[in-house]
Hints:
Blueprint: H1 7-20, H2 38-48, H3 76-85, E1 104-105, E2 109-110, E3 124-128, H4 139-151, E4 160-166, E5 186-187, H5 188-199, E6 203-207, H6 209-216, H7 222-226, E7 230-232, E8 235-240, H8 243-248, H9 253-264
Parallel strand pairs: 3-4, 3-6, 6-8
Antiparallel strand pairs: 1-4, 1-5, 2-4, 7-8
Helix pairs in contact: 1-4
Amino acid sequence: MALNLDTRQRAMLQEMGITLWMPHPPAAPSPAAPAPQREAVAAVAVQEAPAVTPHQTAVTAPVVATPPTPAPALPAVAAAVTSAAAPALPVVATPASPPSDEWQIAPAVQAFPNATGGNAQDAWLVIWEAPNPSAPLEGDTGKLLHNMLRALWLHHSPHVWIAGMQRPGHEALPVAGVPAQPVAWRSLSQGLAAHLQQTQPARILVLGMQAARAVLGSEEALGRLRAQVHQVQQIPAVVSYDPAYLLRSPHAKPAAWADLCRAHALRPPSH
Length: 271
């Protein structure tokens, strides 16, 4: 789907598209760990074992039962002091918090808080399983999402919000080089309603099949989810690929760009 872009915007998109859709080189495989030296270990074990000659005969000494030595009786005063010094403390079991059986959503953060352009009536809400919900544009996947949004010139708008999600019973994996910060998780049913009230988005972009299924309450495959425009509380929503998948499958990046263009053209119904 093409956008109505002027000459400058098309030149900027073409320039950034060269680096945006270039596949990442595969990571060099790590060298295999050396096999254990079984022969050396066996040799050491043989050296440490005591040598027994053929003429040696095992002699078992008779076992003589020794009566136990009675412990000296403590004086009455010492016994009382010892008893008072170590009172029996009750053991209080700390209940472990059970893993949540519902999807969780983190607070929505601004993607470009220092931007000065844009229109509040044309806001975005991006929802995905961000590795670092407090800094969703950090790390490899975050940088890819940053380039995707920048290709639409959304880095000029402070009205682009990103909310990270977390699967039931899972924890977000830390991003290398990014300090982990505590996240005020909320249940998806409650947190999403609060995000829509806070951000007032013109469209919602959900990245990843599992996240889209949770938000839309659907069990359809990703291809069918991408093929249609959904409604989330009367707000149009588009589904696309997770940035982590795009890093593994660069051939899907053109399709992801088409999804972004489709979302860019959406507008909420007028009231």
